[in-house]
């Protein structure tokens, strides 16, 4: 990162990173974000959440502008509540991925994030409390013509690490496979769709180099962003893979780790 100016983009994950364990933006974190904005930085949420899952967080944080959602598959304008770009999985590719999942992990449950709703087959039993109104029960996630922004795979009998190890080789280059902290859930996007690549495109549009980005995250789906940024910070509560690979560390999400880094950067001469 440039040593002479404050970073131009602050790219932060939400759950387990910017948000505390209660799912809130602390007063200290909000103040640090506002100070970063005053110093000229753009705050970009880079999250696995769908757009509907960030509106209240953006209000708490006092953040407007662009958010990268659904692990990079959606670019969202917070102020206008509009999806400005999306990169869905082609239905034929998604079906091939589903077949590979079923072979690797029999009994797996499938869901689909459409960008506005979640389609849930009977075996996909996960429900997110803040998002209950968005679930649509379906016989098959492939019925109809709704976009497949993310294919979601649930296996209550396995950890996400175990699932990833079992299915990633089988899926190969058909799709991007990752996970974001929920046990027994894999999140699958179109080939080449990641948080980092979408952030890179956003930076290019703004004429910002990776060296002028500071990033924060805690889970495997954040790692590419942390490695992309001029300074990538793993939270103290991060997944072991992230802690071992990220170039920097900060305090946990419950200790305002994002705010601590921003305050230090703001105080630097």
From TrEMBL:
A Pfam cross-reference name: Hydrolase_3
Keywords attached to this entry: Hydrolase
GO function term, MF aspect, one: hydrolase activity
Keyword RNA-binding assigned: no
Alphabetized NCBIfam families for the sequence: Cof-subfamily, HAD-SF-IIB
Name of the protein in its database record: HAD family hydrolase
Annotated source species: Nonomuraea monospora
Lineage: Bacteria, Bacillati, Actinomycetota, Actinomycetes, Streptosporangiales
């Amino acid at each position: 990162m440039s040593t002479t100016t404050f970073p131009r983009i602050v790219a932060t994950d939400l759950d387990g990173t910017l948000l505390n364990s209660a799912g809130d933006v602390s007063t200290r974190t909000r103040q640090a974000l506002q100070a970063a904005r005053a110093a000229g930085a753009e705050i970009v949420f880079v999250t696995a959440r769908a757009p509907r899952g960030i509106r209240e967080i953006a209000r708490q944080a006092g953040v407007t502008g662009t958010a990268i959602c659904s692990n990079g598959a959606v670019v969202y304008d917070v102020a206008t509540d509009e999806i400005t770009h999306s990169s869905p999985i082609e239905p034929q590719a998604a079906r091939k991925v589903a077949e590979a999942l079923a072979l690797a992990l029999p009994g797996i449950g499938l869901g689909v994030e459409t960008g506005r709703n979640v389609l849930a087959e009977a075996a996909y039993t996960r429900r997110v409390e803040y998002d209950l109104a968005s679930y649509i029960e379906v016989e098959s996630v492939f019925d109809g013509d709704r976009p497949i922004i993310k294919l979601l795979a649930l296996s209550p009998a396995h950890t996400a690490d175990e699932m990833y190890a079992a299915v990633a080789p089988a899926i190969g280059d058909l799709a991007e496979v990752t996970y974001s902290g929920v046990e027994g859930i894999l999140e699958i996007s179109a080939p080449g769709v990641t948080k980092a690549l979408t952030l890179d495109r956003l930076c290019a549009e703004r004429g910002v180099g990776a060296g002028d980005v500071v990033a924060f995250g805690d889970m495997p789906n954040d790692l590419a962003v942390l490695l992309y940024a001029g300074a990538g910070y793993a939270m103290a509560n991060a997944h072991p893979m992230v802690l071992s690979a990220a170039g920097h560390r900060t305090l946990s999400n419950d200790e305002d780790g994002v705010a601590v880094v921003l305050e230090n950067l703001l105080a630097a001469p």
